[in-house]
Each structure stands twice: as structure tokens, then as C-alpha cells.
Write a sequence for this structure.
């Protein structure tokens, strides 16, 4: 029935003429029946008709009554209001354009930031029922880790997965996957021929897809059988994008062979386009490979051994009848039992106690894992707050514009009130106008946001080809924008609506009250003033926050990193891909370095295991000879392996002893250079050179002799705390740790210009030697602070936007005031007031507002700065220079905005002004 | 008789219309006439309130309407009581009875 009412309502909404005709016909029928009945009773036709007319009175009235008795009439009158609202907006196009533009910028900025927040922080994995997925630990650790200490765990040995995997009543299923992606070299041609391309592979357990509930687009996903035995199932499931771009969307891709790092794999399935695995990071994996193929895929010794290292993450699907607490208790017990079993029979009381302190937090896993998420979480929230403030400023602007406009429409409202319109109807009318503005602004804002989000995403993923981030707004984003429009309209529409509905009928219809604003001038002036003060205050807050962030960026950029910031080219290569066994590496390094050294424009070259600056690091505890290690002392040291010439190439200053030299050959005494922090911490007496240490990591066996001390250099972030660092001679390592993946070249001029020469030199040495990446040290250093660049640039942009909007707002209000007072100003001038006096009179008002705004803004800015303290570097949250600069900029902008109208006041011609009615 | 006294007791229009339609389907004027006749001329329903009420009741599904040819060979919109309308009539009638009984008690006390 409700549905029927709805249907007929809709029908009558869209066919008003048919509806009217029907009512008309019914009234007509009624009239005829009435006339006929009276004639039957003996009246003359004329009398009967008169009587019937008297009874029916106005058929128009009946029609109106019938119509208003149904719900659709409300819809229609609302629609009328909206149409009227749009017509009103078109009547003052200039004003409307300014209003729509500032709204579009405000709403667009909010939508853009929200889209990124939605993408990064809110979105669930595109898999079946993601809310039931749980993570073992927060996944903040990744890489390969040897030690185990008490506390929460999020990274595990593969053996632990084997220990608790399989059918369990606590979980519907458990899966494991490598805590890091592996870059692999893939040849898609037949056999091992064809050009090699880089791809991002992710090693996963066979249960990965079934636990996620992800179905393949073609073929099959991996299953438990694929990871039953080590090294025997060379199969791959590829992503949609990879299938499209690298296999040319081959319909027969399933069953095709591809060569991954020299091993032939069979493609068994293609995932749908929406699937990006479990980690939401810059670049999504191209393929998912059985974890049991780890040795082949990573070209490294097996990590699957029972005493294996910690390197996998785990995820599980919860059972509805098992609580998270129960699941966590069970997992923790199993983990402690696993660790105890691993220790063997000889287990010390201390160790037992340590194991007792371990636990596995079971966390919601529906959103997958993402280091970008934790990295961008706080900055995005700060930016969201900033764009919210920008929108508030835009709202204040619009409220002022509408207030001014409704004041000039007072006569219209009066006429309507006098003709019997209700005050509610007029208030609704103004609100509808506000809503119309907000909707147009919002629609335009969505377009701006789409474009803005693309810029933001490009910044976040650094232009990665395949990313799970998307600028396309989803339902949540559209709802957010729609909600923002409504709230915005309410914010800036309510005050004008209330003001208009309170119009005094008698007063405003009076012709003399036309421009003066009547007797209520004082009260009318207060609200715009409050709005202006709010704008000044808010823009001051935004400016000082942005100022602090920009100072932070400046400090980070100029921070002394301890190595040269320019004239170094970094080249990423991989001798493994070219098939070099460890024995042939030292000769290769020598050839590369001597060949590149000879290039024109090159001063020196060197090689290293890891890049000189990077977020990830190799580290291990060490034991210093002759110095008993006190228990519980952190003796973890960061490590890198470097060739001769490394320090010279990077400009890391040698303090004592010598650097790594070609004489540090494989068969010589193992040499290591340490940084100053290392030397000072372990050898406070300054006698580090000549001492030696051993490294706990079995990858770097033997006794390492300290031959030199270099200046401290920073490698993860300009803001980092200095840590002990040891540089091992790469030629003296063995096996997998002898590989050097980075070539550093010191150039005479712009390092980017020698890229091609270096590339061809490498091809000359071995055409199979891939150049995976080239970048200058400057770019690499900028990568370290990209988050700060992102935040401070956006913050600066939003602060400028806020300032512009506030300036326009003040300009508008002041102009309106001057126009409103034209009469008064003319009288004053006619009576002999000096022009400067008038200028001052108008300016004074703006100055008072500015003063109040600044007075309120300073403490608020200090509070806001304290809130973002953790994101600052090298600058005090209460930094007076930043605050003074912000106050100066706001004041200058506001003065400019009010000076123009004030000047206009002094240009008034008294004669014209007095006739101005 | 003045206009005032011929007006319906407030809130009873729907009930009376439903009751009238319970006898047979009727058009608007027929309903008005029937109410006037049965009440012996005490109540008079004017089309300005009758037709909107009928529209409302139709929307609520208590009556449905169809165009028919009347006894005098004219097209008229006839209203027919639905099941839902019959139930509504019963309910309103019980409520009415309760009220009048209560008012009667108060007046007799």
C-alpha cells in the first residue's frame, strides 16, 4: 500500500496536468450531480446551479486542498524552492561564481584528502567478508630477523606456521606470507630466452587465497598442495595488470611457462583486477608464488629450515564462535610452546622467563597491512583537520555573502510576508538557496578532488605503475561529499535564514529604510563581525602550522647528513640476475669500478651491498673481543658491506686510520671501518683501531679488525639518532652476503648527465647485468623526507587557500558596509569631513576585527603547534619568528582586503551619494 | 439553521465516509447527500473537505476509486471500500463508542 501511494505520488509529480484534470473532472461531476439532484427536488435549473455554486465555492480551492493532502505536494514545493533558489543565484552571477568557487575549493580539498584517507586508512581488502580476517601482530616488522626477545610478536619463522597451520578449531584457516616482496627478473618468452623484466613477487602459503576467500579470474588460485613440499611446485598466480601488460592479455595464459630468476614457473591462474593481495603499499605485487619456492625466487639459501629465521607474517580467518581473546590466548600458548621446543632440552631459567613474556596480539586484518598506512596516518589526519578549517572559512564567507544579499532582499521578504507567506517558508527558501549553492560547489568540488587526488596519489606512490590506490571516488567518498555539502549549507545558511525570517514587515516596506538597513543596523553588524574574526583566527592558526611545517622541511633539507649531497650517482644492479656465483664477484667488482673510474667526468666509483641512504638496514648484535658484553645491553650494530673507494666517493670524512682499500682481498685479514659513534661507545679511550669484533649474524663469519674510523653519517633520516655503524669489506664476505647491489659514482658535474655513460659501461662489461634503477644522491635523500615534503607543501597550499578566502570575505563585507553607508558618508563629506578621516573611520572597523582575530589566534596557534610537535624537526612549536611572520602575513592580507573598500569610501561624490536612494 | 451547527464533529469525517461507503460504492456527491439524508439534515459535508479526505483515504488504501457511468448517465468517480477500509471503520467505530460512552458517563455524573 505504501508502495502504491509512492507510485501514484510519483506519477502525479511528473504529470501535474493529468492530475489536475482528474480533480477538475471530479469537481465537475460533483457539481452536475448537485444540480441534477436539486432540479429533481423541484428547483429551477438557474436556482439549482446557483445553489451548487454556493456549495462548492471555488473549485480551485478544492483542487489545492486535494493536492496538499498528499505527500508529493511537499516535494513539489521544495522543488519549487530549489528552482527559485537557482534563479536567485543566476540573478547575481558574480556573487554566485565567487561563492561556488570558494565552496568548490573547500569541498574539493576535503574530498581529495578524504579519498586518500579512505584509500589508505578505511578501505577493507576486496575479499570475501574481510571483517573476519585477523592479523598475527601489527606487521610493523619486516625483513629477516634472527633474535627473539619478550614482547609482542608480528614476524615468525616459517616453521611456526607449519606448527599451527592445518585444521584448527580456533580459526577457519591460517595463512603465511613473506613479510617483504621480492623483486624478480622474469622472462615471458619460451624457454629462458627473451628480454628480462622486473616484477614484484610475493611468496605466500598455499592457504593464502582460501583464507582470504579470493577467487581467480581465470585458472585456479594456489592451494595447500602447492606448498606441501619444498622446491617442487613451480607455479605462479599473476595479477590482472601483469596479465594485461606483460602477457598481452593472452587468453591462454593459464598453463603458460614464465622464467622467474632462471627457474621455469607455470602460470596457473590470473586474479581479478580488484585484487591486490594483503599489503596496501606503493606498488602491488605482480605475482603470488608458493612460499616453498623461496630459495629459487629469492635466489638465497632456504629460510624454511626448522631452526629458520623470523621472516613471515601470518593472517587468519576467525570463526564466528571463537572470540578474539580466545584466539589470542590459544595462539600465544602455541607460540610459547613452539619457542620452548625450539630451544631443545637445555633451556635456562632466564630464557624460559623470556619465552613466557612473548605473546601474539590478534588484530583486525580486514584492511590488510601497509607501512604506508602507519606512515601517513598522522599526517593525513593533520591535513584533514586543515582542510576542515579551510571549509569553515569558506562557510563564514558564504554566510556573510548571503547575509548581505538577504539584507538587500528585505523588501521582497516583506512583500511575501504581507501576502501571507509563512516565516518558515522564507527561512526554508534561504536554506534551499544555500543548499543549491553547496550542491553546485560540491559537484565542482568532486571534479577538483578527482584531479587533486591523482596528484596526491602520484606523490604517495611515487609514480608506481601498479598501485592499489585509486582516485576514483567510491560510495563512501560520494556520501562524504554529499554529507559535507549538507553540513556546509546548514552552516552558512542558518544565520541568513533566521535573519530573513525575522524581517520586520512594517519597518522594511518603508521606503526610507531601503538602504540604511533600518533600525536594526547595530545587531545586523554583529554577526558578520564575528564571522570575520573567526576567519582571521582560523587563517592565523593554519598559517602558523604551515609555517612550522615548512621550517621543518627546510631544516631537514639543510641538515648535515655527513656525506655529500650532490655529484653522486647511485645505480642499482644485481649480479645474481646475470648468473654470477659468489666466487666470480670480486673480479666483477674490480672490473666495474675500474671501468667506471675511467669514464670522463667521473672522479671515483665504489660498490656496496645496500644503498648509502635507505630506510631499511642490515644489522646484527656484535661481540667485541676482550670486552665482556654485559647482559641486557643493546650491542646491535648497523652494517653495510662496501668496496674500496666507498668513503671517498660519498665524501664521508675519514677521522683516523684508513678506509677500505683494494688490498682488503678475500684472503687478507678481515677489515672493517666503523663510525665515530661506534668508536666512542665501545672504545671510550679512543683506541678502537686495532681491536676486533665478531658478528652474531652467521652471514658474516670470522673476526673483523677495525682499521679506520669515519665521521658519523645519517642514512635513514636527517632526524635520526646516530647509531653505531660498521662497514665491512665486501670482498671479504662469502656466499649470499658477498653480493653488492649498488654502484656509487662521484661525478665532476651533474651526476644525472653521466647516467648513460655508466649504463653503457655496465653493458660493455656484461650485457646481462641489469640496471634496475638509477638516481642521484639528491633524489635518494629527498626520498627519505618525502612524507615531510608532502605534508608541508600541502599545508602551505591549504594555508594560502584559507588566507585568500578570508581576504575575499573581508573585502566583501567591507565593500558591502561602504555601499550601505554611502548615504551617511556623503553627508559627512558634505559637512566637511576630511577624506583621510573617512578612510580611517572605515579602516578602524577592520583593524579592530583584525586585532581581536589575532589576539584569539595566537593562543590557538600555539595550541595547534603543540599538537603537531612530534612532526616538527629543529624548530620549537612556540617559535616566535614563525608566529610573527604568520601574524604579519595575515595582517597584510586583511589590510589589503579592507583598504580597497575604504579608499572607495573616500572617492564618494557627496552629491551623488545624497541622491543615492 | 446556521452554518456552524451543520458542521461535522471534528475528526469524524473519515469514519462517516467509510460507513457510508460500507453500504455501496458511491461518488462524491452521493456520499455528501447520503450523510445529509441519514443525519436528517443535521450534518452537511462540503466538497472542499470531502474531496481532499477521499484523496487522503485513497492514498492510505482505505478506499479505491474508479470512473463509472452514474444512474443519470454521467461519468463520475466512484469510491469503493477496501478490506483495509473496513478494518479501519471497525477500529474507528470502537474508538468512537468508547469515547461517547466516557463522555456520557461524565455528563451523567
Amino acid at each position: 500500500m505504501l508502495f502504491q501511494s509512492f507510485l501514484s505520488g510519483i506519477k502525479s509529480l511528473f504529470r501535474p496536468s493529468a492530475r489536475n484534470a482528474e480533480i477538475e473532472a471530479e469537481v465537475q461531476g460533483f457539481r452536475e450531480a448537485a444540480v441534477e439532484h436539486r432540479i429533481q427536488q423541484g428547483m429551477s435549473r438557474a436556482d439549482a446551479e446557483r445553489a451548487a455554486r454556493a456549495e462548492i465555492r471555488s473549485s480551485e480551492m478544492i483542487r489545492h486542498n486535494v493536492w496538499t493532502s498528499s505527500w508529493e505536494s511537499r516535494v513539489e514545493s521544495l522543488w519549487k524552492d530549489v528552482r527559485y533558489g537557482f534563479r536567485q543565484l543566476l540573478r547575481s552571477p558574480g556573487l554566485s561564481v565567487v561563492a561556488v568557487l570558494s565552496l568548490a575549493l573547500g569541498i574539493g580539498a576535503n574530498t581529495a584528502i578524504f579519498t586518500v584517507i579512505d584509500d589508505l586508512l578505511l578501505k577493507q581488502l576486496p575479499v570475501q567478508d574481510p571483517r573476519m580476517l585477523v592479523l598475527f601482530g601489527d606487521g610493523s616488522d619486516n625483513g629477516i630477523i634472527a633474535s627473539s626477545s619478550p614482547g609482542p610478536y608480528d614476524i615468525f619463522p616459517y616453521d611456526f606456521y607449519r606448527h599451527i597451520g592445518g585444521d584448527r578449531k580456533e580459526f577457519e584457516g591460517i595463512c603465511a606470507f613473506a613479510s617483504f616482496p621480492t623483486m624478480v627478473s622474469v622472462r615471458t618468452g619460451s624457454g629462458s630466452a627473451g628480454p628480462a623484466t622486473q616484477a614484484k613477487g610475493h611468496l605466500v602459503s598455499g592457504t593464502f587465497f582460501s583464507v582470504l576467500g579470493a577467487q581467480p579470474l581465470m585458472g585456479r588460485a594456489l592451494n595447500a598442495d602447492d606448498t606441501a613440499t619444498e622446491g617442487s611446485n613451480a607455479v605462479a598466480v599473476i595479477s590482472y595488470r601483469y596479465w594485461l601488460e606483460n602477457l598481452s592479455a593472452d587468453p591462454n595464459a593459464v598453463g603458460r611457462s614464465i622464467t622467474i630468476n632462471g627457474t621455469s614457473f607455470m602460470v596457473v591462474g590470473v586474479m581479478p583486477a580488484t585484487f591486490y593481495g594483503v599489503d596496501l603499499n606503493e606498488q602491488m605485487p605482480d605475482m603470488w608464488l608458493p612460499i616453498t619456492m623461496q630459495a629459487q625466487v629469492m635466489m638465497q639459501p632456504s629460510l624454511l629450515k626448522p631452526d629458520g629465521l623470523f621472516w613471515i607474517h601470518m593472517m587468519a580467518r576467525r570463526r564466528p564462535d571463537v572470540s578474539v581473546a580466545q584466539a589470542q590466548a590459544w595462539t600465544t600458548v602455541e607460540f610459547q610452546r613452539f619457542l620452548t621446543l625450539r630451544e631443545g632440552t637445555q633451556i635456562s631459567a632466564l630464557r624460559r622467563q623470556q619465552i613466557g613474556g612473548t605473546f601474539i596480539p590478534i588484530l583486525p586484518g580486514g584492511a590488510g597491512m601497509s607501512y604506508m598506512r602507519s606512515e601517513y596516518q598522522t599526517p593525513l589526519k593533520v591535513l584533514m583537520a586543515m582542510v576542515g578549517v579551510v571549509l569553515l572559512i569558506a562557510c563564514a564567507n558564504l554566510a556573510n555573502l548571503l547575509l548581505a544579499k538577504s539584507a538587500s532582499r528585505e523588501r521582497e521578504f516583506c512583500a511575501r510576508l504581507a501576502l501571507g507567506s509563512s516565516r518558515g517558508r522564507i527561512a526554508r527558501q534561504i536554506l534551499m538557496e544555500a543548499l543549491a549553492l553547496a550542491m553546485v560547489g560540491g559537484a565542482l568540488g568532486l571534479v577538483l578532488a578527482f584531479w587533486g587526488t591523482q596528484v596526491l596519489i602520484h606523490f604517495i606512490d611515487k609514480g608506481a605503475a601498479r598501485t592499489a590506490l585509486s582516485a576514483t571516488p567510491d560510495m563512501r567518498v560520494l556520501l562524504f561529499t554529499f554529507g559535507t555539502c549538507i553540513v556546509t549549507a546548514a552552516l552558512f545558511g542558518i544565520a541568513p535564514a533566521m535573519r530573513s525570517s525575522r524581517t520586520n514587515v512594517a519597518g522594511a516596506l518603508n521606503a526610507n529604510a531601503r538602504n540604511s538597513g533600518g533600525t536594526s543596523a547595530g545587531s545586523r553588524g554583529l554577526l558578520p563581525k564575528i564571522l570575520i574574526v573567526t576567519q582571521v583566527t582560523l587563517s592565523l592558526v593554519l598559517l602558523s602550522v604551515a609555517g612550522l611545517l615548512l621550517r621543518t622541511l627546510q631544516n631537514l633539507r639543510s641538515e648535515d647528513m655527513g656525506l655529500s649531497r650532490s655529484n653522486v650517482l647511485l645505480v642499482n644492479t644485481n649480479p645474481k640476475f646475470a648468473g654470477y656465483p659468489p666466487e666470480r664477484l670480486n673480479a666483477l667488482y674490480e672490473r666495474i669500478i675500474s671501468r667506471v673510474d675511467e669514464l670522463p667526468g667521473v672522479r671515483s666509483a665504489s660498490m656496496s651491498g645496500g644503498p648509502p641512504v635507505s630506510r631499511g638496514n642490515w644489522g646484527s648484535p656484535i661481540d667485541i673481543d676482550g670486552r665482556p658484553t654485559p647482559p641486557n645491553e643493546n650491542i646491535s650494530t648497523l652494517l653495510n658491506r662496501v668496496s674500496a673507494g666507498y668513503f671517498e666517493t660519498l665524501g664521508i670524512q675519514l677521522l683516523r686510520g684508513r678506509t677500505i682499500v683494494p688490498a682488503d682481498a678475500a684472503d687478507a685479514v678481515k677489515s672493517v671501518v666503523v663510525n665515530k659513534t661506534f668508536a666512542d661507545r665501545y672504545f671510550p679511550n679512543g683506541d678502537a683501531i686495532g681491536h676486533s669484533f665478531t658478528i652474531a649474524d652467521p652471514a658474516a663469519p670470522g673476526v673483523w679488525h677495525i682499521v679506520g674510523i669515519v665521521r658519523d653519517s645519517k642514512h635513514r633520516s636527517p632526524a635520526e639518532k646516530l647509531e653505531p655503524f660498521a662497514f665491512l669489506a665486501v670482498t671479504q664476505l662469502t656466499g649470499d652476503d658477498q653480493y653488492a647491489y649498488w654502484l656509487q659514482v662521484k661525478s665532476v658535474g651533474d651526476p644525472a648527465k653521466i647516467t648513460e655513460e655508466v649504463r653503457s659501461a655496465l653493458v660493455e662489461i656484461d650485457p646481462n647485468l641489469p640496471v634496475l634503477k638509477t638516481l642521484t644522491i639528491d633524489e635518494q635523500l629527498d626520498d627519505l623526507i618525502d612524507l615531510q615534503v608532502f605534508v608541508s607543501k600541502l599545508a602551505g597550499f591549504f594555508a594560502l587557500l584559507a588566507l585568500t578566502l578570508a581576504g575575499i570575505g573581508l573585502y566583501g563585507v567591507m565593500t558591502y558596509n561602504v555601499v550601505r553607508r554611502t548615504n551617511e558618508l556623503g553627508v559627512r563629506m558634505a559637512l566637511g569631513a576630511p577624506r583621510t578621516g573617512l578612510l580611517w573611520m572605515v579602516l578602524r572597523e577592520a583593524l579592530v576585527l583584525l586585532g581581536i582575530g589575532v589576539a584569539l589566534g595566537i593562543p590557538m596557534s600555539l595550541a595547534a603547534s603543540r599538537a603537531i610537535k612530534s612532526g616538527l624537526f629543529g624548530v620549537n612549536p612556540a617559535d616566535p619568528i614563525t608566529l610573527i611572520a604568520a601574524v604579519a602575513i595575515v595582517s597584510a592580507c586583511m589590510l589589503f582586503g579592507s583598504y580597497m573598500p575604504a579608499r572607495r569610501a573616500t572617492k564618494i561624490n557627496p552629491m551623488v551619494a545624497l541622491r543615492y536612494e | 439553521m446556521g452554518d456552524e451547527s451543520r458542521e461535522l464533529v471534528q475528526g469524524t469525517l473519515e469514519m462517516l465516509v467509510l460507513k457510508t461507503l460500507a453500504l455501496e460504492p458511491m461518488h462524491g456527491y452521493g456520499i455528501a447527500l447520503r450523510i445529509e439524508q441519514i443525519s436528517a439534515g443535521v450534518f452537511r459535508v462540503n466538497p472542499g473537505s470531502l474531496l481532499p479526505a477521499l484523496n487522503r483515504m485513497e492514498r492510505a488504501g482505505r478506499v479505491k476509486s474508479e470512473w463509472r457511468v452514474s444512474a443519470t448517465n454521467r461519468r463520475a468517480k466512484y469510491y469503493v471500500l477496501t478490506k483495509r477500509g473496513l478494518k479501519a471503520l471497525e477500529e474507528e467505530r470502537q474508538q468512537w463508542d468508547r469515547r461517547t460512552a466516557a463522555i456520557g458517563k461524565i455528563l451523567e455524573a
About this structure: Chain B has a mean pLDDT of 84. DSSP finds four helices and three strands in chain B. Residues 88 and 94 of chain B are 10 Å apart (CA to CA). The helical segments of chain B are 13-23, 28-38, 47-59, 83-108.
